Automatic annotation (TrEMBL):
This protein's name: RING-type E3 ubiquitin transferase
Catalytic activity from the UniProt record: S-ubiquitinyl-[E2 ubiquitin-conjugating enzyme]-L-cysteine + [acceptor protein]-L-lysine = [E2 ubiquitin-conjugating enzyme]-L-cysteine + N(6)-ubiquitinyl-[acceptor protein]-L-lysine
Source organism of this protein record: Goodea atripinnis
Top EC class, one word: transferase
Coiled coil regions in record: 110-151
């Protein structure tokens, strides 16, 4: 804003002012007009005498208070935008912080949703796989049932009564007496051969009654794709080898089934492990590691939670299936540290002449009966067997008989 200074009219002689502007009265009204870039101040002419004009020429020029107020207002206008700009910046910063927090919350919720979605997809895939397994098992069971019905029908036709009317009424009794006589004399005849492995290497054979199948240990038939060793299922309905189940990385030396859960297979291997495998899903459900190769294994018939593993140094490890960390007890060998080639458990039987229960461990140097006094105490008893060459001991729980197998040239039958 510019202010025009007052002008004095020039005279005709030399341009000198004829009179000085009379001093204005403080109380007199003033008019300030602002037109663009200049401010004009109009004052009423004072009709005072010449003395007042002389006093005005001596006094300095004074601006009105209204003009000063207007000038201060104009000068302070620059401070208003600075304060407003600071408030706007603060609001922008707050909005930015809120936006970042909203983005963070959105990203976290998105990650959680993605995690839940992946989990749901994995569960869905797992359930689909289980459904496929169950469907396959159901189809196999139906096929085996039809084959079993056909086999029973064929057996019924082959054991039909004689054609003569005189002996037709006695035919059921006659066939029954023949079967009893055959079982007493232990007459067996060859029925059928089943090919389990083209490459050989089958070592241990075990029978699963609920699934009505035999299990034969063998090396993997596809060693390049699935190395190691496992078991081959052989159905007793049609006497055909059906499926291979991989279990261990080295040779399998022992197989045993649980009485409580007959589809649960216990296996011992030279890869220093003892494993539990479910034959319903064909998967390993538990693995126990040892310091030595495992030569044999068996279940406890008095407590289904206990399993035993015979090692190559002659020791027997006791495991509790409820404790998956390590073995709970070790039975040290009494004689030389020969591998435990065979393990068998005899349950307690109070009505028998031999009521004790315990573990029979057979090695190449002989056999030992570990009587189980309680859950943690075992008392060893040396069995009177010929030393050298013992390869296997099988126990018949009801008759309390044991069948001891030696290397070629020796076989011994033992009764406890």
């Amino acid at each position: 804003m510019e202010i025009d200074s007052p002008r004095v009219p020039e005279d005709g002689n030399g341009g000198q002012p004829e009179a000085v502007i009379a001093a204005e009265d403080v109380n007199a009204p003033h008019v300030i007009s602002d037109s663009g870039s200049s401010t004009e101040v109009d004052e009423d002419e004072d009709e005072d005498d010449s003395s007042g004009a002389q006093q005005t020429g001596q006094a300095p020029l004074r601006l009105p208070a209204t003009w000063a107020f207007s000038q201060r207002s104009v000068d302070g206008a620059s401070a208003v935008p600075s304060a407003t700009q600071g408030a706007v910046q603060t609001l922008l910063q707050l909005e930015e912080v809120e936006g970042q927090a909203l983005i963070s919350r959105t990203s976290r919720s998105l990650e959680q949703e993605q995690t839940l979605r992946r989990k749901a997809e994995l569960e869905s895939a797992e359930y689909k796989l289980k459904l496929q397994v169950v469907t396959s098992k159901y189809g196999q069971a139906q096929q085996e049932l039809q084959e079993l019905k056909a086999l029973m029908a064929q057996t019924g036709r082959s054991s039909a009564p004689l054609s003569s009317s005189s002996s037709s009424s006695f035919s059921p009794l006659f066939s029954l007496s023949k079967r009893v006589e055959g079982s007493r004399t232990a007459q067996y005849s060859f029925s059928k051969a089943v090919l389990v492995s083209q490459a050989g290497g089958c070592r241990v054979l075990s029978y699963c009654e609920p699934l009505c199948c035999l299990l034969a240990s063998q090396p993997s038939p596809h060693a390049t794709l699935v190395p190691g060793c496992g078991v081959k299922k052989v159905s007793l309905v049609n006497m055909k080898a059906s499926q291979y189940v991989p279990i261990h990385s080295k040779q399998i030396r022992g197989l045993s089934f649980s009485r409580e859960n007959n589809s649960l297979l216990l296996s011992a291997s030279l890869d220093n492990t003892v494993k539990l495998t479910s034959l319903l899903t064909n998967t390993v459900v538990q693995t126990y590691k040892t310091d030595k190769p495992v030569w044999s294994c068996c279940w406890s018939l008095d407590n289904s939670n206990y399993i035993y593993a015979g090692l190559s140094n002659g020791s027997v490890l006791v495991y509790d299936t409820r404790d998956t960390s390590t073995h709970i007890q070790e039975l040290a060998p009494l004689r030389s540290r020969c591998p435990v080639a065979s393990l068998g458990y005899i349950p307690r039987m109070a009505s028998s002449s031999f009521p004790c229960g315990g573990l029979i461990a057979g090695s190449l140097e002989g056999a030992c009966f570990w009587e189980q006094v309680n859950e943690t105490t075992y008392t060893p008893h040396i069995l009177p067997l010929e030393s050298g060459g013992c390869t296997d001991i099988q126990v018949e729980t009801e008759s309390r008989h044991c069948l001891v197998t030696y290397r070629p040239g020796k076989t011994l039958f033992l009764r406890l």
